[in-house]
Amino acid sequence: MESGFTTIRRTSLYEEVAEILREAIISRRYRPGEPLPSELELARQFGVSRNVIREAIRSLQSMGFLEIRRGPKGGSFVSRMDQSAVARNLSRLISVGYVTINDLAQARMYLEPEVMRLAALNATPSDLEEIEKILKDSEDARRRKDDDKRITLNTLFHRSVGRACGNPFFAILIDTIMDFTERFVKTRSINPYRSDVHKPGEHREILEAIKGGDAEKTFRLAKKHIGRLAEAMKTWEKTYLDKVTRDPS
Known about the structure:
The protein is mostly helical.
């Protein structure tokens, strides 16, 4: 007869220590930029060996919670908000098939138009000034046919609009998505400007709608723009995987 209980997984000492330290960081007992106690002090507090502490610290470092600094003033420091660490973890999830490019494209398609709509309602004059400068630099790069620069500025445009939405959590999600999207484009050797994916003037139209505070127009323009990009990401990934399958070398 089934008992209905789940087998308990035995955790190692370093995992228990890492979890306690992680909770201390999340609860802001240790704030971003602050050091943890030394390995020796942590070993004394937890009543474990320094090897256990090292393993726990390595685990937290790999998850992006800690950064290791060398030198006389070195040690284990709580990471500041770093979306690239989140993006690296997302890359790992995609590489093992836990999250697919289709999943990411769908998330972007549903999230980003709403974030841009919020930007039309909440953007400050300094937000708009920053986005305008990025867009002008992008338009200049387009005239110079500098596609590498345009890819970088495209990422900055979307991230800046994300920050202008007024919701820090959404801004973090957009930062993470765009950081990974740029990595995806570059590692796959994709040039989105050699196709009709990026329509000239679309970013300008979106920015003008945001400037005008027209949330619904911004949403419509963004949905059309992001929808096309999301579909392109799926196509690019399929093409890449087909090529890898045919030529594994």
